[in-house]
Amino acid sequence: MAIISEYNEQDNKPAVSAKPFNAVLDPANPLGFLEAVFEFLGRESDIFKSDSLVRDVNAVVRMVKDKLETEERKRKDQGPGLPGNPAKKLKEDVTVKETKTEGVKEAMEEDKKGPLAPNIGNGLDLDNYSWGQSIQEVNVTIPVPHGTKSKFIVCDIKKNHLTVGLKGQPPIIDGELYQPVKVDDCFWSLEDQKSVCVLLTKKDQMDWWKCVVKGEPELNTQKVEPESSRLSDLDPETRSAVEKMMFDQRQKSMGRPTSDDIQKQEVLKKFMAQNPGMDFSRAKIS
Known about the structure:
Blueprint: E1 2-5, H1 30-44, H2 53-78, H3 86-113, E2 124-125, E3 130-133, E4 137-143, E5 153-157, E6 161-166, E7 173-176, E8 187-191, E9 195-201, H4 228-231, H5 236-253, H6 259-274
Parallel strand pairs: 1-8
Antiparallel strand pairs: 2-3, 3-4, 4-9, 5-6, 6-7, 8-9
């Protein structure tokens, strides 16, 4: 297990000249405007060479969406600012708050019913930490008080157990891992003296994790969206297995046969064609 702490990288960025961009937004076709933007970026920058492009774009979209929704809520809370009936305005405010409270309760109840939808990193954002994953690794980020030194960090990574916290305090994470890890290929680092980042290398690199430690909220692995650009980094055998797993997950979510089911059906059809005189009315695929 390797340890990296308090490393600051100096960025020496060359000066870049600004490029003019001209486009007209048609409210009836906003995607056409976005297409023009990405075509411009593709010609004038190296944005499409980034392995994390899809994740970065999703993060920007999510950030802007949350910002606009927050502004809209503030406008509704403030009201039109025109004189009117105070009692009526108070009643409207109470109704809005009750509606929001009901919405929060419904969302909480929905979360309790089953697995959660993953974040943009294919993990979950929990109260004490957040995590994401690829098919090979799990990345865990644990916030700590700003100015924390590495000597105060407690991080114990074992094959089936993870403990992370601060000396003299109850651990932030302490439990059995969802699946075993390769301890020699795991490490942790202290980033900007405000967060502990733990990288866990999966022992079984053919499966998505539902959680980091058992007992924590689980995500819905059928909604995981792996970056297609990362598949090219895998060896042919691993890539084939990952693509098969992704296909089977999509088929199951739609109630359709998996690749194994399709293969069995093809074998049965071939056998039936070779033996036309046999009765296959009671044949079952198992």
